[in-house]
Amino acid sequence: MSLPKxxxxxxYRSPFCALVIDELFALQRRYRVDVEWVIVxxxxxxxxxxxxxxxxxxxxxREDCERRARWRGIDWAPPKWRLTDVVAATHxxxxxxxxxxELFEAYTLRISRAYWxxxxxxxxxxxxxxxxxxxxxxxxxxxAAKAAIPAAEIELADNAKWCEANxxxxxxxxxxxxxxxxxxxxxxxxKRYLSDAAYGPALAPVDSGILFNDxxxxxLPVAGRETSVAVNRIFCVGRNYSEHARxxxxxxxxxxxxxxxxxxxxLVRSGASISYPLATSRYEYEMELVVVLGxxxxxxxxxxxxxxxxxxxxxxxxxxxxxxxxxxxxxxPWELGKAFENSAxxxxxxxxxxxxxxxxxxxxxxxxxxxxxxxxxxxxxxxxPEIIANLSQFYTLRPGDVIFTGTPAGVxxxxxxxxxHGEIADVGEVAAVIVPRLEEQALAAAKxxxxxxxxAGVLR
Length: 460
Ligand code: MN
What we know:
- By secondary structure, the chain is α+β, with helices and mostly antiparallel strands.
- The protein is built from 14 helices and 22 strands.
């Protein structure tokens, strides 16, 4: 059986490709798709096209890229000069893809961040060869790639023609099942489509004996580092700010904290586009301080609990409020309201060692530039050490466990097109854009089909 094909149009000098390159390789491992990389030197760029509905993206600008990099915790320091070409980088990439695919990932990750994060001149062949060497490409491979330049040029020309014929508007650009996704902020949607389309998880190697083994952990980047954290479980605290407890119809007396959970794969990185979720007409934001644990603890005390904290992040506990309230009224579990795809948006993790003191400052959420939530982390009913101590009475907490600590007052609904941006003093930012459901058309088609099927039954 042949796997569905995902084409990824990629350019080594693109800032938008550099922003998501690690996630693209994770997708390749995570889902049962046959990824075809379409490497280009030049494609029509957003900045060279008129802005229309089909071409909605803003042209490249430095501030936009810097902001997106910050949302995702990527070091971003392009030098003042502009790249003119990346011929050597591209030729070696094309050769590796065809001849040493096992080296393609490490090489491509390194090259595409080299310019944007570390100011390396990747138009310079000598610089590229050194970077290639650092990622395990031997001098013999580099020589072979140089000898194969005519073939690489033919492939690049074919790719350019293919892009033109297929309306590729810029990079990164993805095509799967005839659906097109364009831009660094569409990786969340692409992931969502692949998982909805029952393509994932990737099949394990045959000899492992484990079916549907997803070897790629869900990860969050660590701010200012080239590392990321593998996320284990996501715990969430309910009603932890007095004003929010009141707005939800409760008396904020200091009853013991209570918890609910989300699956780790509900997590989506800051900066993503998120499809309006299924089965709700009241999709709401909750801006929260997120705690990431770096040590195991059981039955700990508030005094000891802070040892387990690896770092903090800004997060959005996205909620299907209508389903949550319906469950609450009936005394049923909250999963339908809280634990669903892309419901935990989290920014880069700020390690404790980078903080002068524990977070206690302003926590703010903007929707389309307007302030919706504005409070102080210090106003939480249960503090971070108290939350960890309490939770550790029930669970052996482990490194990679993540805790959403509750939201302040001001929660409210979002619709497709809304832009969310949150910030927590000293901790960092989180951002997301809500986009229309991918499956809206598919649902309509399925409904029409079901109605026809009903009639067919009656007529028979
Ligand atoms: Mn919450």
